[in-house]
Amino acid sequence: MWYATMLMVTAAVMVIGAALSAAIADGNIPLIAFAIPALFFIGSGGIAVWLLAIGLIGFGALMPYQPIAISLSLWMILPALVLITGERRNWQVSLLVISVVIAMECGVLALQGDQKLGGAMSYTLLQILCVITVWVSAYFWKPVKNLSWWPVLLILALLAGGWLQAALLAFCGSVLAITLQELQRVGGEARGDKLSVILPAIAFATIVVFPQFSVPNPVFVAWLLSLTIAWLGDYLLNAENEEE
């Protein structure tokens, strides 16, 4: 129990570090930093590792062209995907959750189309596709027993080259990936569902609490409603399971 709690706290801290590093750099981070977390599993992780790398690199490549608030808010799609595909899934709850999330993202896209928000609709759609790719990777993930530790040298190289934020992002992302794999090994379905809500919420909340980062009101509202419906969906599924 204590071990799992420690892992969850570690994951939360790493999400904060990754979000801060991306926000401070305003998304201008070398793409190798996004690939490094996947490289730790590259030896025997199979297709899921390649999907993780593609999703993260694609997402990172588009970050400089998008407001950081929009990029981080898109990770709230993950809870909806997890809730509608998990073992506890219920079609009524799934329909409710996915409808709200789609409505929120369509609102952001519409505002970008009217040039009332920064970035571009095409970039947002591509980032959504990247987030879905990361989710597919997680869905088919098989624990990797023998990690490759040579990517640590790449993190040190980024640090030596003066890319402090990139090194921090790569470090936090790598520790987060390793921690989540360990939680998958020792945890259960319910814990994974809750983490899928908590961690993306923490990522966005990190930039909300710092006044130097700009968070447009429509993006904040979309994130807040997506978070609320994710928590509600998780609550309804828990209530249904308790009744059974």
Summarize the structure.
The protein has helices spanning 2-24, 31-39, 47-62, 68-73, 77-85, 91-113, 121-139, 151-160, 164-186, 189-208, 217-243. It is an all-alpha fold and 244 residues long.
Structural features, described:
Helices cover 76% and strands 0% of the residues. The protein is globular, with a radius of gyration of 17 Å. The chain is an all-alpha fold and 244 residues long.
Q: Quick one: biggest sheet?
A: none
Order of helices and strands: HHHHHHHHHHH
Structural class computed from helices and strand pairing: mainly alpha
| Strand elements, count | 0
Strand content: under 5%
Cα-to-Cα separation, first versus last residue? 25 Å
Low-confidence stretches: none
What's the shape? globular
Query: What helical percentage do the residues reach?
Result: over 70%
Mean pLDDT, to the nearest integer, reads 89
Number of helices: 11
The radius of gyration computed from the alpha-carbon positions, rounded to a whole number of angstroms, is 17 Å
Fill in the keyword field for this structure.
11 helices, 0% strand
Write the layout of secondary structure elements.
Layout: H1 2-24, H2 31-39, H3 47-62, H4 68-73, H5 77-85, H6 91-113, H7 121-139, H8 151-160, H9 164-186, H10 189-208, H11 217-243
